[in-house]
């Protein structure tokens, strides 16, 4: 197993490969969480590479090696800019994998927290995603953005956008909102993990999305799974991590 630090275009990333590197491999692109970085998901990469899968761990916009030294409030106010940038960059990473002859077939995608949110948005616009793992993520973009703005205003922050800009942002987010585009999942394998005590990314909206999606998977119930842990907060358990990597490997290697 090898971990290589690389830069593709302007994106710093870790390219984790099993021992049989040098040929096209089934591949997972895995996104990290808010204020985290690519190195923080190496345990997911280890489990996947051990099964013969290449893993690409990119640094998201304003994170890791792309940090611009913003404080917590500044980076939080740019949350959706970061998510939408990651969705756009996912297409670039997929194209690079094909151009470099590194990927067999199409990639699976996953992520933790903000990375899970990114994954759900990507599922609405990229039909080539083979399978997904959403770890404490959310797909209700518009509802989540409205709640975030209300929370900031309640704390006394003056949001640096006009009413017109706010409406434009919400209209853009609606394009990627999973609950508004359930048909785009098209029966592709998807695994959810979420702690019921999560106060960062609330449990209920994601569970509601799962229940709505499940109706579309009636003929293929084995391709959608939601693992809930009653006492867990905003931190994925080892069980969840192992289940997610096994899920991705199952559908990439079949």
Can you walk through the features of this model?
There is one protein chain. The chain is α/β, with parallel strands linked by helices and 254 residues long. It has one domain (2-253): 3-Layer(aba) Sandwich (Rossmann fold). It is built from eight helices and eight strands. Strands 1-2-4-3-5-6-7-8 form an eight-stranded mixed β-sheet, sandwiched between helices. Strand 5 (108-112), helix 4 and strand 6 form a beta-alpha-beta unit. Helix 1 crosses helix 8 (238-253) and helix 3 (79-99) packs across helix 4. The mean pLDDT is 94. Keywords: Hydrolase.
Task: List key phrases describing it.
hydrolase; AB_hydrolase_fold; 8-stranded mixed sheet; globular; alpha/beta; Rossmann fold; 254 residues; Peptidase_S9_cat
List strands and helices in order, with pairings.
Blueprint: E1 2-8, E2 11-17, E3 27-31, H1 42-49, E4 54-58, H2 72-77, H3 79-99, E5 108-112, H4 114-125, E6 132-135, H5 141-154, H6 163-175, E7 190-195, H7 203-214, E8 224-229, H8 238-253
Parallel strand pairs: 3-4, 3-5, 5-6, 6-7, 7-8
Antiparallel strand pairs: 1-2, 2-4
């Amino acid at each position: 197993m090898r971990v290589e630090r690389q830069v593709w275009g302007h994106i710093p990333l870790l390219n984790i490969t099993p021992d049989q590197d040098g040929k096209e491999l089934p591949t997972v692109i895995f996104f990290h969480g808010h204020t985290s970085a690519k190195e923080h998901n190496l345990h997911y990469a280890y489990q996947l590479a051990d099964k013969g899968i290449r893993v690409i761990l990119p640094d998201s916009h304003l994170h890791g090696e792309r940090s611009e030294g913003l404080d917590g409030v500044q980076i939080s106010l740019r949350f959706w800019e970061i998510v939408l940038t990651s969705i756009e960059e996912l297409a670039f990473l997929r194209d690079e994998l094909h151009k470099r002859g590194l990927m067999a077939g199409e990639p699976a995608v996953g992520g933790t927290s903000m990375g899970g949110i990114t994954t759900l948005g990507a599922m609405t616009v990229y039909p080539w995603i083979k399978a997904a793992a959403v770890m404490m993520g959310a797909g209700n973009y518009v509802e989540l953005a409205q709640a975030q703005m209300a929370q900031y205003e309640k704390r006394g922050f003056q949001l640096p956008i006009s009413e017109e800009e706010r409406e434009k942002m919400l209209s853009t987010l609606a394009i990627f909102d999973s609950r508004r585009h359930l048909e785009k999942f098209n029966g592709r394998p998807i695994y959810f993990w979420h702690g019921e005590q999560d106060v960062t990314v609330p449990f209920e909206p994601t569970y509601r999305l799962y229940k709505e999606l499940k109706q579309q998977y009636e003929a293929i119930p084995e391709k959608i799974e939601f693992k809930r842990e009653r006492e867990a907060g905003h931190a994925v358990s080892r069980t969840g991590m192992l289940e997610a990597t096994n899920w991705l490997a199952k559908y990439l290697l079949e």
